[in-house]
Design a protein that fits this description.
Elements: E1 2-5, H1 9-17, E2 22-25, E3 40-41, E4 56-66, E5 73-84, H2 86-99, E6 103-105, E7 109-116, E8 119-126, E9 129-135, E10 137-140, H3 147-151, E11 160-169, E12 176-180, E13 189-193, E14 198-205, H4 209-219, E15 227-236, E16 245-246, E17 249-251, H5 267-283, H6 287-309, H7 314-324, H8 347-355
Parallel strand pairs: 1-2, 1-10, 2-6, 4-12, 10-17
Antiparallel strand pairs: 3-5, 4-5, 7-8, 8-9, 11-14, 11-15, 12-13, 13-14, 16-17
The chain binds flavin-adenine dinucleotide.
The site of flavin-adenine dinucleotide (FAD) has 37 residues, from helix 1, strand 7, strand 11, strand 15 and helix 5.
């Protein structure tokens, strides 16, 4: 028996593939709520699962990169990106797991665990008081503040950004999203249309995210009355030193910090990690080794680029975006970052990196 903590994408996707009996525990009464996500998925999602059309809020064909001086670069995506209704997406994935036999327990908040006679006894807070469930294996798919990681002593060395996003009344073209660079020192701001009149507007930073959001709001001339639902949450920063398993306790997704440090996107990588863990348990393979073999290089690439970007000032960003105009970024898929690296080998961009290389890595 496997107890999975968290009915997010990582936990539900894992539960679809593992052969043992699975219980999924979710602290909220409804899977997928509250939402703290923009719901952008690259075409890499189609390599993992076929989505129902009803989950898709919008389709993105173009991306606009906006530096501090406003001289933007817009490119056309070779394959469109999807904006999903994140709550519906999570429900869809957990239902797939239930179809494969997983049992779902909502309103069960994992608190702690102890070991007894080779079994893992997990304690939960439920609306009817505390309850214990035993299992042979415990999977922490419980997001960036993972209680499973904390209870198993695997939470050391964690850092995160805080993402703050509102659904805003904003008229814009529906098939393009905007990325604002240089307004926040360690991330970016985003405006992602959900429809012609509604957009997901947000920013992330390790510190002072409220202040940076205010700056973005003013830049976009958004009135407070235009902001509807606020969604905020931590986004873990990938740390290759994170240990993600210990004595039959395993971490996947945000709980393991498996996030792209350039964008904060973690849905695809969390699902991939879930699938890798299922394969490891089904075939008696070493999870720690396997996920690093399959995901670490990509995640490390994103982390290195993030460290480099975080050293740039506003003028550097103006120059970077000007330089990127020489490249057709529409070919690049950030979920397969090492596939198309050759496209970046343009003299102007290489020159930019060399001139700024003392800031990098
Ligand atoms: C503002 C913002 C915008 C983002 N936008 C994007 C985006 O556009 N694209 C993208 O790919 N990623 C995005 N991300 C990141 C993305 O949301 C995460 O990487 C992704 O949700 C990770 O999936 P997961 O299954 O690992 O964890 P989660 O989705 O966090 O799922 C964890 C689940 O565990 C439950 N849980 C937590 N603690 C307990 C407990 N103690 N007991 C029981 N259940 C528990 C939670 O309720 C939740 O359902 C964004 C994040 C933020 C904050």
């Amino acid at each position: 028996m496997i107890n999975v903590i968290g009915a997010g994408p990582a936990g539900s996707f894992f539960s679809q593939f593992v052969k043992d009996d699975v219980r999924i525990f979710e602290e909220h009464k409804e899977v997928g709520k509250p939402i703290a996500c923009t719901g952008i998925l690259t075409s890499a999602i189609s390599d993992l699962i076929k989505l129902d059309k009803s989950l898709i809020a919008n389709r993105i064909k173009r991306v606009r990169l906006i530096p501090p001086n406003g001289d933007y670069y817009e490119f056309k995506l070779k394959t469109e990106e999807l904006i999903v209704f994140r709550d519906q997406f999570d429900k869809f994935l957990v239902e797939k797991a239930q179809d494969k036999g997983a049992e779902l327990y909502v309103h069960h908040r994992f608190l702690d665990f102890k070991r007894e006679d080779g079994e893992i006894i997990s304690e939960f807070e439920t609306k009817n008081g505390r309850k214990n469930f035993s299992s042979d294996i415990l999977v922490g798919a419980d997001g960036p503040a993972s209680k499973v990681a904390q209870a198993s002593g695997l939470f050391n060395g964690r850092r995160n950004w805080v993402g703050k996003q509102y659904t805003a009344n904003l008229e814009m073209e529906k098939d393009v999203f905007y990325v604002y660079f240089g307004g926040v020192p360690d991330f970016f701001g985003w405006v992602v249309p959900e429809s012609e009149t509604k957009a997901r507007v947000g920013i992330a930073s390790e510190k002072n995210v409220g202040m940076y959001f205010e700056m973005l709001r003013k830049k976009l001339n958004l009135k407070e009355k235009d902001l509807n639902e606020c969604q905020a949450g931590p986004i873990p920063i990938y740390n290759p030193k994170n240990v993600t398993s210990k004595d039959k306790v395993y971490l996947i997704g945000d709980a393991a910090g498996q996030i792209k440090s350039t964008t904060g996107g973690g849905i695809v990588y969390g699902m991939r990690a879930g699938k890798i863990l299922a394969d490891c348990l089904n075939n008696d393979l070493d999870y720690e080794k396997e996920w690093r073999k399959k995901l670490h290089k990509d995640l490390m690439f994103h982390l290195r680029i993030r460290r480099f970007l975080n050293k740039l000032d506003k003028n550097d960003y103006n120059e970077l975006i000007r330089t990127l105009k020489d490249i057709d970024l529409g070919e690049f898929n950030r979920d397969y970052p090492l596939k198309n690296l050759g496209m970046f080998m343009k003299p102007s961009l290489v020159g930019f990196f060399l001139r700024n290389s003392y800031k990098a890595i």
